[in-house]
Design goal:
By secondary structure, this protein is of the alpha/beta class. The protein contains 13 helices and 14 strands. Strands 4-5-6-10-11-12-13-14 form an eight-stranded mixed beta barrel, surrounded by six helices. Strands 1-2-3 form a three-stranded antiparallel β-sheet, covered by helices on one side. A three-stranded antiparallel β-sheet has the order 7-8-9. The longest helix is centred in the middle third of the chain and has 21 residues. The chain is globular. The structure holds 2-phosphoglycolic acid and zinc ion (ZN).
Length: about 425
């Protein structure tokens, strides 16, 4: 027996881009309260669950979330109150059936997820347990398996996160040689600030994009890789041993009419040519991971890319899988990748998120827990990464508090686990 839910109240807040998003507070019969908020993507996959917005042009240019807030307060809350809080799976299944659609279009995945996450946090609190520990129970992860995730840090932003920069959305540094999260964060911060100096010396602007990475006007999609390598070495670190590089081209954003359009170099490429381009890149730079290198429905391209490069590097599906177990199963069958990005708001409940993580692990896929480009300071994903022993996390650059909140939470968990 744990505590009962006394009330569930949602409200509209702003995300890191200044757009509305939803936050939900769960109060328990003993007076404890837990809140969770939901992030929002920009390069959103077309197969994601629906982020319900008001489309009322008089408020926030149509981006208000009062309908989602109202769905929590008037449809979901009455069904859940007065029940024991410690029933995550039952509540998530109930919300899925209350919604009744395949993609959570009626109540909104944002509405449902805000409740799902707040319930988990409240249940952990009610049992006087750290959130990651409770998530370990929900995901059947034994405590002895808990690991701190290896971060991929997005220090150069392009695509939809920084208009006017590169076609590729994310250029990330991964401090693979760091022995702790504290060390990874320090190394990352040092390289980030070295990169800033190098960009400034080259007369490039050092303002940051949506995920806190720099977003200068590069002339090619390769130039950022040169700068990253130089920043890593100038900061006193070794390529490969200390740092590797990860990319998220988010290729769906530049795929039109069956071709990949790389604007800054005025190239129009086929799937095969994109794969060839990536093959030349991994020979030249210490790239160990490429996410969404191809379009979200280019299944045959992904299969080809995985058969050609999957032995050497991590091939990650984000928009391809949208944290959806059905799409992941298709990818497993088609050998379309060897890793999956996990974003709870792509699917809309904690239970389904965990189901997807466990399915991936069962088939030997790597799992990377991820933020969205529009974030809040809620560090839920840090606990999720530890409690499910995901292995990796992607949570932005070494600037902007909505990104740093996750790194800071990971460092706190690390100290706690060290005892
Ligand atoms: P998004 O981007 O949050 O804007 O979708 C993140 C990603 O593509 O990984
Ligand atoms: Zn992505």
């Amino acid at each position: 027996m744990t505590e009962q839910i006394r009330s569930i109240k949602a409200r509209e807040i702003l995300d890191s881009r200044g757009n509305p998003t939803i936050s939900t507070m769960v109060s328990l019969s003993n007076g404890l309260r837990a809140e969770a908020s939901v992030p929002s993507g920009a390069s959103t996959g077309i197969h994601e669950a629906v982020e319900l917005r008001d489309n009322d042009p008089k408020r926030f240019h149509g981006k208000g979330v009062l309908k989602a807030v109202n769905n929590v307060n008037t449809i979901i809350a009455p069904q859940l109150i007065h029940q024991e809080v410690n029933q995550q799976t039952k509540f998530d299944r109930l919300m899925i059936s209350l919604d009744g659609t395949a993609n959570k279009a009626r109540l909104g995945a944002n509405a449902i997820l805000s409740v799902s996450l707040a319930i988990a946090r409240a249940a952990a609190l009610a049992q006087n347990m750290p959130l990651y520990q409770y998530l370990g129970i929900l995901s059947d992860t034994p405590e002895k398996d808990f690991i701190l995730p290896k971060p991929m840090m997005n220090v150069l932003n392009g695509g939809k996160h920084a208009l006017g920069s590169t076609d590729m959305q994310e250029y990330m540094i991964a401090p693979v040689g760091a022995r702790s999260v504290r060390e990874a964060v320090r190394w990352g911060s040092e390289v980030f600030h070295t990169l800033k100096r190098l960009l400034a010396e080259a007369d490039l602007v050092t303002t940051v994009g949506d995920e806190g990475g720099f977003a200068p006007h590069f002339k090619t999609n390769e130039e950022p890789l040169e700068f990253m390598v130089k920043a890593i070495q100038t900061a006193g670190y070794r390529l490969n041993e200390d740092f590797k590089i990860a990319l998220d081209p988010a290729a769906s954003e530049f795929f039109h009419d069956g071709r990949y359009h790389l604007k800054i170099q005025q190239q129009v490429l086929s799937s095969e040519q994109m794969i060839q381009l990536y093959q030349t890149w991994i020979k030249r730079w210490p790239i160990f991971s490429i996410e969404d290198g191809l379009d979200e429905d280019d299944w045959s391209g992904f299969t080809q890319m995985t058969s050609k490069m999957g032995q050497d590097i991590q091939i990650v599906g984000d928009d391809l899988f949208v944290t959806n177990p059905t799409r992941l199963q298709r990818g497993i069958n088609a050998k379309a990748a060897n890793a999956i990005l996990i974003k709870p708001n792509q699917i809309g409940t904690l239970t389904e998120t965990i189901e997807t993580i466990n399915l991936a692990k069962k088939h030997g896929f790597n799992t990377i827990i991820s933020h969205r480009s529009g974030e809040t300071c809620d560090p839920f994903i840090a606990d999720l990464a530890v409690g499910t022993a995901a292995g990796q996390i992607k949570t932005g650059s070494l600037s902007r508090s909505e990104r740093i909140a996750k790194y800071n939470r990971l460092m706190a968990i690390e100290l706690e686990l060290e005892g």
